[in-house]
Structures are given as structure tokens and as C-alpha cells.
């Protein structure tokens, strides 16, 4: 089945359908409305899903050759090209960001492998397609069909990078699960906006007890209002206290404030509920006060426990559906080491302790700082004389102090 035609100068063996209808029905949150429409109006949803997608997309994907006795990184060839530039004319970051957002919002994603000419990947927006199942129910999908065209011939999943969630043939969007929480937040925002729009914007009122006095005439009332206006900003008497005659008294009005309407609490609760639904600690998105011992602890928690399962899911699906079919004996994985690596200072200290001394030469350090070589004699890594390699007794130049003193 053809889904759309890729514009390229090179011949393409895969053709995809020209025009797919886009489903944009404005339904209530309690029904299966389009997640993209809800994303545009729910700050908490956009904050959490954007946080996940950004941190996944920034981690590079690596390719390895496993045919030998060792894992050899692939830097050239079709697989290395796809890993570095998955989709034509789009960045690697944007490709993975959009793919992860498809999964987070729709609970399914599909990416077509174009093998003709230069191999590349093309992401299909979940708004435009659905899985086709063999029994028409919740069975295993055997193809993809355009939205609204159930009778059309499905496109085979052979050579398609895809996945779906548990519970239905199309996956179950997390937004449907969060519909009650999001609906409550929407209604609370609507109530506060209506309250502030129609509420009187005055701090208090003047009262006049004229039980034993003559009521103020229209002229006297107008003169009183004009005199009081002189004490407002720009009236010339601001900062002074007016002196009123008769039984005129000031009465404070306890109007609602953002604190009274719990606006901050409502936003925080929505952030916490959405973050928890996506398996993200609320502290990571600023919904609660964080208590991480260091930046490294935060980074480790993020890329291991929080995003680790998502990295594994994407790696396993890509290897099983694309790599094993087109490049058997190879393997791809996300470079979590690059994500977990700290600053240059932290990395330098840890590496120096691991190797037991300096791990870069003088000329390499000068080159990294844009300086010319100091001569061939500075190409070698220095060896401290107090270490075992230099004739000393210490395993590391830093291995000294009270920890080396016996009991």
C-alpha cells in the first residue's frame, strides 16, 4: 500500500499515500479527543511530555558491529548514516523528539524505513494512521491503514519501526487516563477567570449612617467622590489621610486573591498528577522541592530510573524491526554514558583517579585549548615519580595521607 511519496532525486522503492485526512474533532476531555488539541491548552501536560522528549532526544544513538569478538563502533555505512541523520532534511534531535512525543501522547508510533537509494527513516504522524489487526479487534497488528479508511489495503509492517501500548489495538493514550485530572484543572481555571473578571475591583466602600442626619444630596455626593479621588494616584493628595465630617465610615471588603482561590496549589497539583502518570518524579519538573545531593545524583536518577525503561523500549524495537532485518550482526543503543557524563572538571577528576594519574599529554591539552604544540617531547603522558610506575610506592599520585597509615 502506498502512503506518501518521498520527494527525492534518487529512486525510492517505498511509496506512501498522497493525502491522508487529519482528524481534528474538538471533543471534550472525557472523550477520545485529539491529544494535540489538548496539549495546546494544558500547561502541565506540555511541561511533562516536553521534559521527557527533550531529555531523550538529546542522547545520541550509537551503532556497533557485533560480528567479531569485540563490539566495534560503526562510523561509516548506511546504518551509521541513519543513526546520525535518521530523516532527510531534519535534525536527529527533532526526529527523536517527535517520535517520543507520539508515544507519550498517542501510546503508539510508526516510522517507515525507506531502503531505496540512501536508506532513511520517515516518521508517520499518529493523527493520520491506525493499526490494522488481523481479527479486527485487539489482536496483533499486521499493518497500517489511513485514518478513516478501514476498508483500504493495509501497508505491511515489514520494515517499519513501531510500537504500541497495552490495552487496545491502537494503544490507550495517557491523556484519556488523565482526562478527569485535566478536566478538573480546566474547570478550576475557568472558575477563577470568571471570578476575577466579574468581581468588583475595589478594596472597600464608604458607608454613611444618616439615621439622624439629612441624606447627602446628589451634589454633595459628587463633591465627596471628587474629594476622595484626590487621594488616589495622580490626585495630588496621595499618601495623606482624608478628614470626613458626619457619620461616614470606611468598610474593608475581603475580596478573593489568587492565594485565596488556591491558584498555585491547583497548578502544582496538576503538575504532580501528570508527572506521576508518566513515571517522572514531580521534583524533576519543579512541581515539588527537590532534594538531590548533587547535580550528578539528579542526572543519574533521570537517565537510569526515570528514562531508562523508555530508552530500552526504543532500542529493542529498533534493533528487532530495523537492524536485524537490514543489518544482521549489528546493534544500536543510546549513549547513556554521554548523558551521565558530568562537567569537564568532574570527568577529569574521576578519570584521573581511575587510571591512577594523568591521562592526557601536554600537547593534547594545549590543542584542546587552541594552543600550538610545545614540541615532540611533550607528546607523552607524564609519569609522577611518587607512583609505582615512576619508581615510587603509591598507586596514584593522590594516594597519600592518613588512609595509608596502618592501625
How does this model look, in words?
This protein is α+β, with helices and mostly antiparallel strands and 407 residues long. The protein contains 13 helices and eleven strands. The chain has helices at residues 35-39, 43-57, 78-84, 92-106, 174-177, 179-198, 218-229, 263-277, 295-306, 308-326, 336-340, 344-355, 362-368, and strands at 61-65, 72-73, 108-114, 120-124, 129-133, 141-146, 155-156, 160-164, 204-208, 248-252, 330-334. The strands form four sheets. The chain has a three-stranded antiparallel beta sheet. Strands 4-3-8 form a three-stranded antiparallel beta sheet. Strand 5 (129-133) and strand 6 form a beta hairpin. Helix 2 crosses helix 4. The termini are far apart.
- Tell me the helix content: 25-40%
Structural class: alpha+beta
User: Termini separation (Å)?
Assistant: 78 Å
- Overall average pLDDT: 78
SSE ordering: HHEEHHEEEEEEHHEHEHHHEHHH
What global shape is seen? flat
Radius of gyration: 33 Å
**Could you give a short account of the major beta sheet?**
3 strands, antiparallel
Features of this protein?
disordered N terminus, 407 residues, 13 helices, alpha+beta, flat
Describe the structure concisely.
36% of the residues lie in helices and 13% in strands.
Please specify the SSE layout and strand pairing:
Blueprint: H1 35-39, H2 43-57, E1 61-65, E2 72-73, H3 78-84, H4 92-106, E3 108-114, E4 120-124, E5 129-133, E6 141-146, E7 155-156, E8 160-164, H5 174-177, H6 179-198, E9 204-208, H7 218-229, E10 248-252, H8 263-277, H9 295-306, H10 308-326, E11 330-334, H11 336-340, H12 344-355, H13 362-368
Antiparallel strand pairs: 1-2, 1-11, 3-4, 3-8, 5-6, 6-7, 9-10
Amino acid at each position: 500500500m502506498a502512503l506518501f511519496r518521498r520527494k527525492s532525486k534518487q529512486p525510492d522503492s517505498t511509496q506512501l499515500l498522497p493525502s491522508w485526512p487529519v482528524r481534528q474533532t474538538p471533543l471534550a476531555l472525557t472523550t477520545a479527543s485529539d491529544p494535540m488539541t489538548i496539549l495546546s491548552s494544558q500547561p502541565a501536560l506540555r511541561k511533562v511530555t516536553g521534559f521527557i522528549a527533550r531529555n531523550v532526544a538529546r542522547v545520541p544513538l550509537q551503532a556497533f558491529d557485533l560480528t567479531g569478538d569485540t563490539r566495534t563502533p560503526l562510523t561509516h555505512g548506511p546504518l551509521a548514516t541513519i543513526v546520525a541523520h535518521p530523516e532527510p532534511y531534519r535534525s536527529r534531535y527533532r526526529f527523536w523528539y517527535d517520535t517520543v512525543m507520539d508515544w507519550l501522547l498517542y501510546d503508539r508510533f510508526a516510522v517507515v524505513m525507506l531502503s531505496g537509494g540512501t536508506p532513511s527513516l520517515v516518521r508517520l504522524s499518529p493523527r493520520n494512521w491506525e493499526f490494522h489487526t488481523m481479527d479486527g479487534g485487539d489482536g496483533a497488528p499486521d499493518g497500517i491503514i489511513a485514518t478513516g479508511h478501514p476498508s483500504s489495503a493495509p501497508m505491511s509492517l515489514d520494515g517499519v519501526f513501531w510500537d504500541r501500548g497495552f490495552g487496545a489495538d491502537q494503544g490507550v493514550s495517557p491523556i484519556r487516563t488523565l482526562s478527569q485530572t485535566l478536566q478538573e484543572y480546566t474547570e478550576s481555571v475557568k472558575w477563577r477567570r470568571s471570578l476575577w473578571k466579574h468581581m468588583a475591583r475595589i478594596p472597600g466602600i464608604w458607608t454613611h449612617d444618616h439615621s439622624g442626619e439629612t441624606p447627602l444630596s446628589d451634589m454633595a455626593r459628587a463633591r465627596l467622590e471628587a474629594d476622595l479621588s484626590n487621594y488616589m494616584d495622580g490626585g495630588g493628595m496621595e499618601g495623606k489621610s482624608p478628614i470626613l465630617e458626619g457619620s461616614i465610615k470606611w468598610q474593608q471588603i475581603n475580596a478573593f486573591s489568587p492565594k485565596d482561590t488556591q491558584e498555585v496549589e491547583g497548578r502544582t497539583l496538576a503538575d504532580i498528577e501528570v508527572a506521576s502518570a508518566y513515571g517522572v518524579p514531580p521534583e524533576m519538573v519543579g512541581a515539588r522541592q527537590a532534594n538531590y545531593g548533587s547535580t550528578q545524583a539528579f542526572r543519574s536518577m533521570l537517565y537510569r530510573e526515570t528514562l531508562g525503561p523508555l530508552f530500552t523500549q526504543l532500542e529493542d524495537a529498533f534493533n528487532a524491526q530495523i537492524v536485524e532485518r537490514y543489518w544482521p550482526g549489528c546493534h544500536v543503543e543510546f549513549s547513556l554514558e554521554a548523558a551521565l557524563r558530568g562537567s569537564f572538571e568532574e570527568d577529569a577528576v574521576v578519570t584521573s583517579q581511575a587510571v591512577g594519574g594523568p591521562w592526557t599529554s601536554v600537547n593534547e591539552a594545549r590543542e584542546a585549548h587552541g594552543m600550538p604544540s610545545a614540541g615532540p617531547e611533550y607528546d607523552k603522558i607524564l609519569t609522577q615519580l611518587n607512583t609505582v610506575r615512576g619508581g615510587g610506592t603509591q598507586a596514584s599520585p593522590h594516594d597519600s595521607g592518613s588512609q595509608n597509615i596502618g592501625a
